[in-house]
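Appendix C reproduces, verbatim, an entry submitted by the partner laboratory led by Prof. M.T., so that reviewers can inspect both the input and the predicted structure.
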Amino acid sequence: MKISNFLALVDVKARMSLKSDASKLYLSYLWWLLEPVLWVLMFYLVFTLLLGFGRDLLFLMAGKIPFLWFSKSVLSSSNSIVQGKSLITQTNVPRQFFPYEQVHTVLYRQWVTFLMLFGLTVVYGYMPSWHWLWMVPLWVVQYMLILLVSLVAAICVSYVRDTRILIGMSMMGLMFGSGIFWDLERIQDPVSRELLVTWNPLAYLLDAYRDVLMRGELYDLHHLGWLALILAVGLVLVHLFYRYMGQSMASRVINS
């Protein structure tokens, strides 16, 4: 299948999934905004008002919204090949189509939540500027990270269904270990801080979003460049795996 046809098919299926999901809910597309707002308000109530962490709503939103993009994409993609079992038995569609479709379904919802984040940023007194264009490289790299992790997660669940439970637990660990509720600057030891952003790309990305929106600073471009290169290599390798092991994955899914 040509790449253009593959992407067109992903786009159509993602849009159909969005309409189908929205039609099942009373508030329909409004949930795209309500869900992240309710998540952040809950954490604001617990961590700021009750526990006194001293973080305002914008700080939490700037971390939670990008994290939700990542976690929802990975969780929905992890079981996508298994859920596409009936289609696999009828057609020879590339196996990576299923995680791609889930990633893009979440992606199409995400632009609304980022618009809400921009609006809240203005409310807090941080006016839009050309500096905000540095968000674009962050979106690109985070998309690459999401795609790579989603493709790998779908492979793991295809071979061992129980790994989906581990993936869900990992999302919980990442939520508390990626700086959504606390600032990386609170880590006094520079070595520990460097290890965290090196082995947890989400921690670096969430802090970089705050650099652009709240601090008016430019994040570490050198780090972003290396991260993009590593992710690009990873994507090439995982696509090669899908190309040569796709039939094995399909057989595993169909026969299990």
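The chain has a mean pLDDT of 87. Additional entries are available on request from the coordinating office.
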